[in-house]
Amino acid sequence: MVDDSVEPERGMRAGAQAVAAVVVVGGMVGGMWGLGGVLPKTSAQDGKPATCSASADNTLPAKYVSPTKLCAALNRADLPVLLGTPDEHAESASGSSGWMTLAGGTKIASPEADVDLRTYSVRLSASYDDIPVAEAARYVDSSSQVKTVLGRPAVLYSDRTIAISFNLGGGKASTGPGGVARSLLVSMSAKDRGDSFEISIWRQDDVPPDDEALFRIAEEVLPTVPGWTAG
To answer: Which parts of the chain sit beneath pLDDT 50?
Structure first.
């Protein structure tokens, strides 16, 4: 038996890192990537939306938003409507309280949460790297666009996914090119003081994700996340 998954590359931020998600087609695959443990995914049962797990929150200082709170903000009842897939529901929800380690040894907190539906996967992450979004925009590829979201500096960009095939019988995996993920990096503060939230969406097929859905999610979800400041 072969399971196919899609894992978008980490591309933009080292502080400004892009998505690195796991989307499973035809079966569930557990995994760990990047820095820190991935929270166990809580799958939907009996057609009900998935709920978020609450483990591993103690690995981040209290001043940072926890993966549980990120997941609670993202895994909202109207997420399918915001995505343009109102007949779907969250099938799994997970989070990670990871850390990025820069070349000089500096560690940066990078908590995140993922919610998977039948058509889309969505990721909400926070980066505490002290890099203003206006500065981070200079390191993105030429296809990126500088935007304003809820009065804050933002950058819209694409990331190429990696398709991973798991042979459950032979224990082997192979990789290949996947589809496109779209990401929106938004400053936590209107004055762009250096930290940011990022929302990324990608589809389970090769169809490009809907930018309007990405902006709808950002506008509704971000003001509900702890750390989103008024000024």
So the answer is: 1-4, 7, 9-40
**Angle at alpha carbon of residue 139, lines to 98 and 8, rounded to 5°:** 50
What was the pLDDT predicted at 104? 80
Please check whether residue 173 is in contact with residue 144, taking contact to mean a CB–CB distance below 8 angstroms.
Answer: no
pLDDT of residue 11: 41
Q: Contacts by 47-52 with C-beta closer than 8 Å and gap 24+? A: 47/89, 48/89, 49/75, 49/77, 49/89, 49/90, 50/75, 50/89, 50/90, 50/91, 50/92, 50/93, 50/115, 50/116, 51/75, 51/93, 52/93, 52/94, 52/95, 52/113
Query: What residue ranges do the domains of the chain occupy?
Result: 2-224
- What pLDDT, in 10s, does the model give residues 14-27? 333 333 333 333 33
Q: What is the pTM of this model?
A: 0.79
Classify each residue of 178-203 as buried b or exposed e, where b means 16 or more C-beta atoms within 10 Å of its C-beta.
bbbbbbbbbbbbeebebbbbbbbbbb
Contacts of 63 (CB under 8 A, 6+ apart): none
